[in-house]
Fold this protein.
Amino acid sequence: MPTSDDTAARCRSLGIPLATLDERPHLDLAVDGADEIGPGLDLIKGLGGALLREKLVALAAERFVVIADESKSVKRLGTRAPVPVEVIPFGWSTHRAFFEELGSDPVLRRRENGEPFLTDGGHMIVDCRFAGGIPDPLAIARTLDRRVGIVEHGLFLSIADTAVIAGETGVRQITR
């Protein structure tokens, strides 16, 4: 079950069979990467731009396993990666002051040619960087969830069941 059009195209080119959530709304297992893994297996995901689809697939799964290297493990979410926030294009800039009030430095994600990055769903992404990390990820997630015009955010809280983290000294597993 690919979470992006790009991944789907790559799979099709290799002859890998695919399914959709419409065909299989309940999954036994989902496996994906993460941009940050924080305490309690809370995550930041979406730097690749597929956060909405990634969250839909993760939530459809009985178990969600994250695989990452040691550099993604942090003591506080938001210390290394911004929180991607997917917004509708209409009036996207009206969110800028709102994001700043939350304590972030919001930046519209752009392609190399300067055009706004658009998700597979046709939405824009604003990357919200929090200096020193996010003090209360749950409060930020709840606030973002209530804002009209925000489609989804990259805070994956209490969703992952297991993280497999590779480092110089080997592989460790963290389970919720």
